[in-house]
Amino acid sequence: MNILLAFKSEPDPSMLAEKDWQAATKETCGPDTSLLRCSPGADEQAAAALLLAQRHKGCEMKLTALSIGDERSLHWLRYFIALGFDRSVLLETKGDLRFAPEFIARQIADWQRKHNADVIVTGCQSSEGQNGQTPFLVAEMLAWPCFTMVERFTFEPPFIVLEQRTATRVRRCRVRLPAVIAVRQCGEVALPVPGMRQRLAAAKAEIIRQTISCDEVPVRECQLLTRPEQCRRATLIDGATAQEKAGILWQDYLRQRMKP
Predict the structure, then answer these.
(1) How many CB atoms within 10 Å of residue 29?
(2) Second label for 207, Cα 20 to 30 Å away, from 23, 33, 227, 255?
(3) Interhelix angle 101-115/134-142, nearest 10 degrees
C-alpha cells in the first residue's frame, strides 16, 4: 500500500525580534522569514507519528514524504527518512505559498497521478495561511472522498478505519480506499526521535528534487501591521509616602478580603 504524507515546512515567526516587526511596517514585503528555522505543523507531525505507529504494528506500506517549498525542508525530509520513510520528495519553488492552496493541491494531485498513492495524508491546516482548503481541493481534483478532523486511523486494506472529531462527538468510519485524510493533532501522539545511526544513514539518503514554476501564484503584499494592545487592569495608588500608600492599599483593598 502506497501512502503519501504531504507537508509544508513553515517558519516560526515567534523567533522574530520586535524590531523586525517594526521594520516590516515601513514597506509592503512583510517581515523577513527567510532565515528562520522551518518545521511541519503540529497536525502534520501527528499524521507522521500515526503512520509510523501503523507500520510498527505490522501493516505493510510504502511511505513517501512530500514537501513543497525551498531547501529549508530538506532537514525534515531527511528526518522522516531516519524515522523509516521509504522516500522523500521536495518540489522546489521560491514563491510565496502561504495563500496558494489551489496551487499546492494541484502539485500533490499531479504527483499522485504519476505514482499511484492509495492514501494521501495531510494536516488539517497550516499555521501560516490557516485556510484549511488544501486537502479538500486535492480530493476534488482526484474525485476522492476527504475526511478532516481525523484524530486516529488504522489500515485494514482495502479499508481504513478512522475517528473524526465533530462538534458533539467522535465519529468512527470504515472507508474504502483511496481517500484523502486531514489529521488533527489531539495531543496523544508524538513524533519519534531517530537514533544517531539512523540520522547518519539519512544524511546520505537520496532526496528526489524537482523544480516547479509558481508563476500562476499571485504576489501577496503586506498592507498593514498593527501591534495589539496589551493592557492590564490596574488601580494606581497615589500617596506622598510609602507608608501612606500602604495604608490606602490596606484600607481600600486588603481589609475587605481578609477573613474574619
Answers:
(1) 11
(2) 33
(3) 40
